[in-house]
Amino acid sequence: PTYAQALAVKFRPASASCQIVECGVCYVRLWTLKGCSLQFNELALDSTDNRVSYYSCLSSSGDETLVGTSTGHIIRFTDPSTGVVRRKAHDTSVQSILSSPEGGFVSSSSERIKVWSASFGCLLSVSTEMIGCQPYIISSIACNQQDEFLVGVSDGSIWRLSRSDGANVNGESTPFKSAPPRSSFGLDVSRDGKIATVDDSGNLILSNVFAPANERKVIDIDMPSRAISLSPDGTLAAVGFGLEHKTKASVIAGQWSIINVVSGQELGCRRDVRRHITYIRWHSGGERLAVGSRDGKVLIYHLLTRTAHGAVKVDTQLLSTIEILSFPTQFDWSRDGKYLRVNTESRELLYFEVGPGILIKEVSRLRDEEWDTANCVYEWGVQGLSSGNCDETRVTALDCCRGICPTVVSGDDQGVLKLANYPCTSEHSFLPLTAHSGPVTSVRFVPGGSHLVSVGQDAVMVWRRRLISHSEAVINESPPQGIQTLSGHQPPAENDAPTNTCCNAVRYNSTGRVIFAESGVVSIFDQQESNRSSRIFQQHTSTVTAMCTSDSRQKVASSDAKAIIVWDSTTCDQIQVLADKRQRGVFLISFSSHDEMLVAVCASDEQTQTICIWRLHLGDSEPLLFQTLPAGDERVHHCTFTSSSSKQLGLFTLSEGGFSLWTEQRGALTLEERQQCSPSQTLTCGVQASDQVIAGTQCGALAVLRGRRGVGELTGAHCGPVLALSACPEGFISGGRDGIISIWSPELTKISSFDSHSAVLSIDVRPHLNNESTTSVLARTERGIVEISCMTHKLRRLIEMSPRSYGPSKKHT
């Protein structure tokens, strides 16, 4: 064929009449350079018995050219017009040929290497069994400076052999270079950027999107695995074991285990099927787990995690077994954990009720169901990614990122990623990206969508997603759908401090738009417009750990592992960068009343907290780190500058055990007052309202720590921990783990209450123009961002998000 596949090409010596020789399927060509063009002459080298063969490899040395064929022959010629020499060299296809300056050469088939003399005499024959690299096949050979040659085999290892006797120079069954780690197949990513992968070599590998690339942890799990799922808080991993074909007797196909990723300890295991685990998925509630196996079963388990004598234990109970004709490849939980949608190897989309484990035939019942994850490759909202594929291409992995700009990414068996807006129903509405050299086995967005992780048979890749405006897309000549792009992610430097703290803050800006952080970006969302447009601040290089707005709400300060960035809340223009080596692990920041100063609470390790105070405006000078203060070892939940009519600087901090008041003396802040709360109280959050300090407690009470009426407490304000407090015109507002948001007077009288139906993590209010009442309440909950009208009590769900952890953590980072 004129356009048959080319398999090898070599330059010939300058003295030869033809400069280039090429071989491929059914042809050998000699190319000659004439001026600026190449012309070729195709040779007829077929055997006398007219057997159809392809020419697999070639080598050229001096005036001679050697060509290997699929029938095991080697053809040698100097000038094809004067004749060729054809010799049967191997029983199977010749994989590679290597010429030597002395006139001899080395050739290889899949299982044997032979050394030849210049007269075509076989001097040495070595098999893979003699080398010690069975059952792998030989893929390439090369010579080094000594009387040795190197052999590359299909598992990626390299072997060094003596050219005189074929002995293994490194010893019996010892390679010169060991094979690289086997491909990763299972992948999951936690909300803080933790990447967990498993592979055929029996390793669980942990890394982080926001940590240096060389920082990783390897846990030996003893058996090969291709399925993994992280718990909602990222501390536990459910790992399924087994392969399609059993490689050794110690592999227990069908077993799955729960592993503590911090200690590497196995907390429990089960085996209720006999073939290997194909897919495993944790529900966001943390109490249910679905396990799919190769024998066509999906097992639903109830998990109970408990702590006994300081050790974490997990009890498992089998709830139901779902049986299907083909084996499951992907599945998604519903948001409430009642339903499961399953993709199978036969390209089916099935829906099940997980309690009784029965198939739902009337799928229209679930038309409005909200889904916890979106990993099924055959689903109505992503049909555009697979509808245009030919039979040779198949979508193998998929993930969706929901939020202000819903996005879907798929990977196929050709190593191509496809990026599109969600839903994607047209086969022409995606952006293809060549990524891996083999099939993409899994893709996962970091919750928030700032980064994407893809796994193939060659590598684990981290991508940075960049959202651009439509005008930028036109300038950059991006495709019409390309309002988002993926680029290679540059990990932080080795000395950067990675952090596991994610920012839960949500705020109004000066125009009433919603500001919130998710993963490595901060978004400004217009909830009033019909298309709900947004702007993105993307100057952070790692997870956004803290965020606040100024009193005017015109400025925003947000922090990551390296620095605090001050920027404009309407234009997203960067104003200042506050960076210092003493400021590491920022988890709390706040502006002063006139935006002239900023305070940051940092945790460089789990025992030490530091307060950093910055002066922002000094004429044309750079921001100045004015002072650092020790903050003790109790978790700081609230830190603000005190309001005063005088110009004297003051600072108020609230920790788990009480509060501290710092005042300015001789140009520096010193501790003036430290008040401890009762041992039975554990403070979780705080706020300064009018002339008093209010704190929320772990038991759901509100405590007045400092005020005009002295110290007091209101028990039973919430059923569970109080997680958020904010000042408002009426007094203050509180939110708890019970999902209740309440507005209180300064005298701790409840004015009104609202139910957000999910744990409240952060609160902000929009006051009326006269600043005498609250118009609306903005809350970030465990499930997303909601806005509540104080006049109509109507709740609007603005943004759905991945589940968030709640409650104060005793760790700082």
Secondary structure layout:
Blueprint: E1 6-11, E2 20-24, E3 27-34, E4 37-43, E5 55-61, E6 64-69, E7 73-77, E8 85-88, E9 96-99, E10 105-108, E11 112-116, E12 122-127, H1 128-131, E13 138-143, E14 148-153, E15 158-162, E16 184-189, E17 194-199, E18 203-208, E19 217-220, E20 225-230, E21 236-241, E22 255-260, E23 266-271, E24 277-282, E25 288-293, E26 297-308, E27 311-323, E28 328-333, E29 339-344, E30 349-353, E31 358-359, E32 395-401, E33 407-412, E34 416-421, E35 430-434, E36 440-445, E37 451-456, E38 460-467, H2 470-475, E39 484-488, E40 506-508, E41 514-518, E42 521-525, E43 534-537, E44 546-549, E45 555-559, E46 564-568, E47 574-578, E48 586-591, E49 597-602, E50 610-615, E51 624-630, E52 636-641, E53 650-655, E54 658-665, E55 668-676, E56 683-689, E57 692-697, E58 702-706, E59 712-714, E60 722-728, E61 731-736, E62 740-744, E63 750-755, E64 760-767, E65 774-781, E66 784-789, E67 795-800
Antiparallel strand pairs: 1-2, 2-3, 3-4, 5-6, 6-7, 7-8, 9-10, 10-11, 11-12, 13-14, 14-15, 16-17, 17-18, 18-19, 20-21, 21-22, 22-23, 24-25, 25-26, 26-27, 28-29, 29-30, 30-31, 32-33, 33-34, 34-35, 36-37, 37-38, 38-39, 40-41, 41-42, 42-43, 44-45, 45-46, 46-47, 48-49, 49-50, 50-51, 52-53, 53-54, ...
What does it look like?
Helix content is 1%, strand content 49%. It contains 2 helices and 67 strands. It starts with 5 loop residues before the first strand and ends in a 13-residue tail after the last strand. Residues 469-483, 492-500 and 804-813 have low confidence and may be disordered.
